[in-house]
């Protein structure tokens, strides 16, 4: 902090990035009361969670580029990074969003693809072909979607011998494969038995895998959607029709609500309307943070969503209107899973009545 006095005689000249560079983003969480006071008194520029997360991602990107070497691939990666940052800035001005964590993911995938190509004797962009892409996708199928943006950029901005065509994703039953039963049981047991400091991600996991709630909806959930019943269990309203949680899920939710104060460092949680407050002042938890939880469980949001939808129909659900009213699932999605799980019932619904 004393170093800031030497560098800046006027707090108004201190930018968010300069502050984070000087003190490090972890200091914000380590000394929350100090920074909360300094922000309120306007001694320092206010830093919200988005600014911190963007700065952390930028540090990751710079570190990745620093370790990329100095060959043709490293130069191309630096050019691509420059264009991504320009795109993120211009999109923000237009009201669209290219998030910094998306830039990081795209950069990681691009570096992996170029490393794959270099190991196979490629020495310039001119030599890249669909063969290198196919080989890369076979080795690292999980990076296919993340490398697509780079391939588009490559075709537009570099002289390749022939435009690299992207393989088309198989959209039949896309996103319908869920988790195996052993994996579901393991995650459920892990969440229900969560320690006090892990109840927050545990509740989120339950909402995703059992109640088909995507990160966007979970982040926007408010306390008035939850009600404790006379028997001690909880009722929750994801959509029009409230659902009652069972005893184990209610106990987990109760433990989380009791200790949720610990997850706010800039403001009293009691004043926050969100079930899952974020780190910033009166802010909600970010989808990015939820994504980190999902990643730590060794799965994806799509897999958890598909697991929930398949389980709902496998348990004997007779009409797609139920997840629409109780879980907030769109009509199109409800019918899609309905048709996959029981084509005969789906045909009957389409013949005899609308949702």
Proportion in β-strands: under 5%
Shape: globular
Ends apart, CA distance between termini = 61 Å
Series of secondary-structure elements, N-terminal to C-terminal: HHHHHHHHHHHHEEEHHHHHH
Radius of gyration: 24 Å
pLDDT below 50 for ≥5 consecutive residues: which ranges?
170-175, 343-355
What's the tally of helices?
Answer: 18
What strand order characterises the main sheet? 1-2-3
The total of beta strands comes to 3
Biggest sheet overview: 3 strands, antiparallel
Mean pLDDT: 76
Task: Give your account of this protein's structure.
This protein is mainly alpha-helical and 355 residues long. The chain contains 18 helices and 3 strands. A 3-stranded antiparallel sheet has the order 1-2-3, with helices on one face. A hairpin with a 6-residue loop joins β2 and β3 (243-244). α10 packs antiparallel against α11 and α17 crosses α18 (343-352). The longest helix has 22 residues, at 72-93. The chain is globular, with a radius of gyration of 24 Å. It starts with a helix and ends with a helix.
Keywords, separated by commas or semicolons:
355 residues, mainly alpha, three-stranded antiparallel β-sheet
Provide a brief overview of the structure.
Helix content is 58%, strand content 2%.
């Amino acid at each position: 902090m004393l170093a800031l006095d030497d560098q800046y005689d006027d707090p108004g000249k201190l930018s968010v990035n300069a502050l984070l560079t000087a003190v490090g983003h972890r200091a914000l969480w380590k000394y929350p009361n100090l920074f909360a006071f300094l922000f309120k008194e306007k001694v320092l520029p206010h830093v919200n969670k988005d600014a911190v997360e963007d700065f952390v991602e930028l540090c990751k990107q710079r570190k990745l580029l620093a370790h990329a070497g100095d060959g043709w691939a490293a130069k191309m990666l630096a050019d691509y990074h420059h264009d991504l940052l320009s795109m993120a800035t211009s999109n923000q001005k237009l009201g669209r969003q290219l998030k910094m964590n998306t830039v990081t993911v795209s950069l990681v995938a691009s570096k992996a693809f170029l490393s794959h190509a270099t190991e196979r004797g490629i020495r310039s962009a001119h030599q890249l072909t669909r063969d290198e892409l196919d080989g890369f996708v076979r080795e690292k199928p999980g990076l296919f979607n993340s490398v697509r943006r780079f391939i588009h950029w490559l075709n537009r901005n570099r002289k390749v011998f022939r435009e690299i065509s992207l393989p088309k994703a198989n959209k039949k039953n896309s996103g319908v494969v869920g988790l195996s039963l052993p994996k579901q049981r393991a995650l459920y047991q892990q969440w229900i038995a969560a320690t006090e400091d892990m109840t927050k991600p545990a509740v989120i996991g339950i909402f995703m895998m059992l109640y088909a709630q995507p990160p966007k909806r979970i982040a926007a959930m408010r306390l008035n959607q939850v009600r404790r019943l006379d028997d001690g269990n909880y009722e929750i309203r994801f959509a029009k029709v409230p659902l009652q949680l069972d005893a184990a899920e209610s106990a987990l939710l109760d433990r989380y609500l009791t200790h949720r104060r610990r997850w706010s460092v800039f403001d009293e949680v009691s004043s926050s309307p969100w079930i899952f407050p974020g780190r910033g002042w009166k802010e909600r938890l970010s989808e990015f943070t939820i994504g980190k939880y999902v990643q730590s469980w060794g799965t994806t949001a799509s897999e958890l969503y598909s697991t929930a939808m398949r389980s709902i129909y496998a348990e004997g659900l007779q009409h797609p209107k139920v997840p629409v009213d109780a879980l907030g699932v769109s009509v199109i999605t409800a019918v899609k899973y309905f048709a996959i799980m029981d084509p005969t019932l789906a045909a009957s619904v389409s013949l005899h009545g609308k949702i």
